[in-house]
Automatic annotation (TrEMBL):
It comes from the Bacteria. GO terms for biological process: methylation. This is Methyltransferase, FkbM family. NCBIfam families: fkbM_fam. It comes from Flavobacterium noncentrifugens. GO terms for molecular function: methyltransferase activity. The keyword Cytoplasm does not apply. Residues 77-214 form the Methyltransferase FkbM domain. Keywords: Methyltransferase, Transferase. It holds the Pfam family Methyltransf_21.
Length: 254
């Protein structure tokens, strides 16, 4: 359990004093809208949701906050939820171009509110997958941060379609993806099962949370596929695995 002083110090790592104080007070008092005067933006936290918990997970832990050997220019935020990982990356790497992917409509709407005004941020309200497919959306845990996809029997009976990393790379005309952040509630198993041969060698850094508790075999499939290439598991942070592609970046000194 973090003390108030520690919470405030952690917020100051990412935000100016006035914004950190506004966030500290707003989170403590369960505000739905928190105004950040220095950033000139607002943070929106929906009532009866996991939004505040998700914000704290990203900004009060070292989930993605590690020293990298590169300054990322291209980022994919897969499983973007309401936009707090994208917000984190955009504050830390303001010149980066970010493609976010989120399957659920209310989350996608909240994402747009929380990232409004950012340059070079694109949202795909689709599922990240290994080929063109159609899905229904399931909410087995009755939460706002753990939606899953289920294969639909036809486009007409689906809630959403898919996008592939090959499509994103082609659409954005990127040579590489500098950071691929993946938190997609078990769909990482299918993503790494097939059709990865073109995009995977183009990834410099993978930040991935696997969900074996949701879909059996996620961790094995991800690790087995990544092991075919020159990646190293550099570190883990709060359950997230951080891989470096040694063909594209130099291993940082410890």
């Amino acid at each position: 359990m973090l003390t108030n002083l520690v919470r405030f110090k952690l917020l100051k790592k990412h935000f100016k004093f006035r914004d950190a104080y506004a966030l500290f007070a707003g989170l403590k008092n369960k505000k739905e809208t928190i105004v950040l005067p220095k950033l000139n933006r607002k943070i929106y936290l929906r009532p009866n949701s996991k939004d505040a918990e998700t914000f704290e997970e990203i900004f009060l832990s070292h989930l993605y906050d590690i020293r990298l050997p590169i300054i990322p220019e291209t980022i994919v935020d897969a499983g973007a939820n309401v936009g707090f990982a994208t917000l984190f990356f955009k504050i830390k790497y303001p010149d980066a171009s970010i493609v976010a992917i989120e399957i659920e409509t209310k989350n996608a709407d909240a994402f747009r509110k929380n990232t409004t005004g950012f340059d070079n941020v694109t949202l795909h309200q689709q599922a990240l997958y290994n080929k063109k497919s159609y899905f229904s959306i399931a909410d087995p845990y009755k939460a706002t941060n753990s939606f899953q996809i289920r294969k639909a029997d036809s486009p007409e009976n689906s809630d959403i379609d898919s996008v592939t990393l090959d499509e994103i790379i082609s659409e954005k005309k990127w040579d590489t993806i500098d950071i691929l952040k993946i938190d997609i509630e078990g769909a990482e198993k299918q993503l790494f099962e097939k059709n990865y041969e073109n995009w995977l060698p183009k990834i410099k850094i993978i930040m991935i949370e696997t969900h074996d508790r949701m879909v059996s075999g996620c961790s094995f499939t991800v690790m087995h596929t990544i092991s075919k290439y020159n990646f190293i598991l550099y570190t883990t942070t709060e359950g997230t695995l951080i891989y470096y592609n040694l063909d594209l970046i130099a291993l940082p000194s410890l």
